[in-house]
Design a protein that fits this description.
This protein has twelve helices and 14 strands. By secondary structure, the chain is of the alpha/beta class. Helix 2 runs parallel beside helix 5 and helix 4 (95-109) crosses helix 5. The longest helix has 17 residues, at 10-26. The chain is globular. The chain binds ligand FO1.
Length: 320
């Protein structure tokens, strides 16, 4: 059995722990197609937050509370950069984490595509699933905001997603998100093939707006999901009207989408009517959720441990 997971960072990483556990139970192989919209260059280093969250979490090296960066981290480089007044200081690079960015940056500058770099880094971490970036090309999520700095004639300006997320904590008037580079991006090697042979495609309970949407914004990727043989089941990132973690509520508000399991399900849409999903897993707390042309199933969605998450995956398999 072949499972493909569309995943973002922290929630996606936690979910992949359960997908891996389920795959080990039934002997399935797993490919994770991971968002690159969070990626940025900082202090001369190429940083891939979602790929790293997934790699560190599955490799056992992630800091469990933060969800990003390394366990047992130290922050000497960060302090030294601040001592030089090297901006930005609002994005903290851990010393162990810097080694990942140094290896990645030197390989990229050596001409390796991001997918090859990701494979090389994963050799050390042995995540137990194949990690693929959604694209090897530049695709960056930027937020169009008002206020807080020099703006265009209409008072609006674009800031990188990380500045929006980390510096402003999404607390700035925001008009929309744009995926810079998306129109010229191609699916990374292996992505279309994986979707073309998948028995099941899972949409992780990641942020639908800034983690899943940038994956689907890669031309040809959404089409590959729709045309693939595998059934597509999404897992709601919203339980009881609130995001499990992060700021999906702020992101959905920018799009004017209701922050609910039903709102996100309807945003993704039914595959039979040109959307994404065949099935949609929602939490029992959310009561009756209807999404046109989609089979909705209530099942516990708290990823309290790998077994609970693996049970969610089993529910997805049973649903389709
Ligand atoms: N998130 C923060 O809130 N503060 C940080 O200083 C920060 C640094 C950081 C460094 C490397 C990395 O891979 C991720 C980092 N994150 C940080 C998380 C990052 O913003 C993620 O993109 C979001 O958590 C969304 O996935």
């Amino acid at each position: 059995m072949r499972i493909v997971v569309l995943a973002g960072g922290i929630g996606g990483a936690r979910f992949l722990l359960g997908v891996r556990a389920y795959a080990r139970r039934v002997g399935a192989e797993v490919t994770a197609v991971v968002n690159v919209g969070d990626d940025l260059y900082l202090h001369g280093l190429k940083i891939c937050p979602d790929l790293d969250s997934v790699m560190y979490t599955l490799g056992g090296g992630a800091d469990p509370e933060r969800g990003w960066g390394r366990a047992d981290e130290t922050w000497t480089v960060k302090a030294e950069l601040a001592a030089y007044g090297a901006e930005p200081t609002w994005f903290g690079l851990g010393d162990r984490d810097v080694a990942t960015h140094l290896v990645r940056t030197s390989m990229i500058e050596g001409g390796y595509p991001l997918s090859a770099v990701t494979g090389a880094l994963a050799t050390r971490w042995q995540p137990g699933v194949r990690l693929l970036p959604a694209t090897d090309d530049r695709l960056e999520t930027h937020a169009i905001v008002s206020g807080g700095g020099p703006a265009g004639a209409d008072g609006q300006r674009a800031i990188h997603f990380q500045e929006w997320w980390v510096r402003h904590r999404a607390d700035i008037p925001t008009h929309r998100f744009v995926f810079v580079g998306a129109d010229a991006a191609k699916p990374a090697p292996g992505v279309v093939e994986a979707l073309g042979t998948a028995d099941l495609v899972l949409v992780a309970p990641s942020n639908p707006v800034v983690s899943i949407a940038p994956i689907l914004a890669v031309p040809g990727l959404r089409e590959a999901v729709a045309a693939g043989p595998g059934r597509v089941v999404g897992v709601s990132p919203i339980i009881g009207g609130a995001p499990v973690r992060g700021m999906a509520d702020r992101c959905l508000a920018v799009l004017g989408v209701e922050c609910s399991a039903e709102g996100v399900g309807r945003m993704y849409g039914g595959r039979r009517s040109g959307g994404l999903l065949d099935g949609w897993l929602v939490a029992p707390e959310d009561g009756t959720v209807t999404v046109p042309a989609v089979t909705v199933r209530a099942t516990p969605l708290w990823m309290t441990d790998e077994t609970a998450t693996a049970d969610m995956v089993r529910a997805a398999v049973e649903l389709v």
